[in-house]
Design brief:
Largest sheet: 2 strands, parallel
Number of helices: 7
Strand content: under 5%
Number of strands: 2
Radius of gyration: 17 Å
Shape: globular
């Protein structure tokens, strides 16, 4: 079983690297690489009894499907999107305030709940889970600041997976931290802000 899970880790490493590179340039196939990577990470998290991370990956899978739909709408907004053009939406104030509330309440709540399980990393799992759900929500709507959410979440994931001996996944998330920094700079300098009709149903 250990050999099989190591193979899964390496598949997750490769697909994760490809996904993040595609994410920076808004390549439409990024979501399918994301689904492959998430399946591998979720398998590894379940094997290590990292329950919050397992739930987070399930959430990411749902958000990837949402992202496919949302990004098609963004790409078709107004004129035809050029291949080299990055389209981002302005974050509504209600999203920022809601996200802050989720961060403040989510970390201690998830941490507390995980103390009742056999999760070996409840603190790191709680932080990565909370920031991860926020980042995925923002990514699906192409908000610039989703990159900052990924940096925060991925730093905790690097720490957690190194602690658990899942070195390929730890390396993948370390790569994700670096590319997230680049992604933020790239989107900020090259991105074109579009009107997202900032109501809750559209933001």
């Amino acid at each position: 079983m250990e050999e099989t899970i190591q193979i899964i880790y390496y598949i997750g490493l490769v697909s994760g690297i490809v996904f993040v590179i595609m994410q920076i340039f808004q390549h439409p196939w990024m979501w399918f690489m994301d689904l492959l990577m998430l399946s591998c990470v979720m398998a590894g998290a379940i094997y290590k009894h990292l329950w919050a991370n397992s739930l987070l990956d399930a959430y990411f899978i749902v958000m990837a499907i949402v992202g496919i739909v949302k990004w098609r709408r963004i790409a078709s907004h107004g004129t035809q999107k050029k291949k080299t053009e990055i389209r981002i939406q302005k974050m509504p104030a209600w999203v920022a305030w809601t996200s802050a509330a989720i961060a403040c309440a989510g970390v201690p709540l998830i941490w507390y709940l995980l103390t009742f399980t056999d999760d070996p990393e409840p603190i790191l799992d709680a932080f990565s889970f909370t920031f991860g759900i926020i980042a995925a929500w923002w990514l699906a709507r192409a908000y610039l600041f989703q990159w900052l959410g990924w940096i925060a979440s991925n730093v905790f994931l690097v720490w957690m997976f190194f602690d658990q001996g899942a070195v390929p996944l730890a390396l993948m998330y370390a790569f994700c931290v670096c590319t997230s920094v680049y992604g933020f700079i790239h989107w900020k300098t090259k991105g074109k802000v579009i009107d997202g009709n900032a109501g809750p149903d559209e933001g």
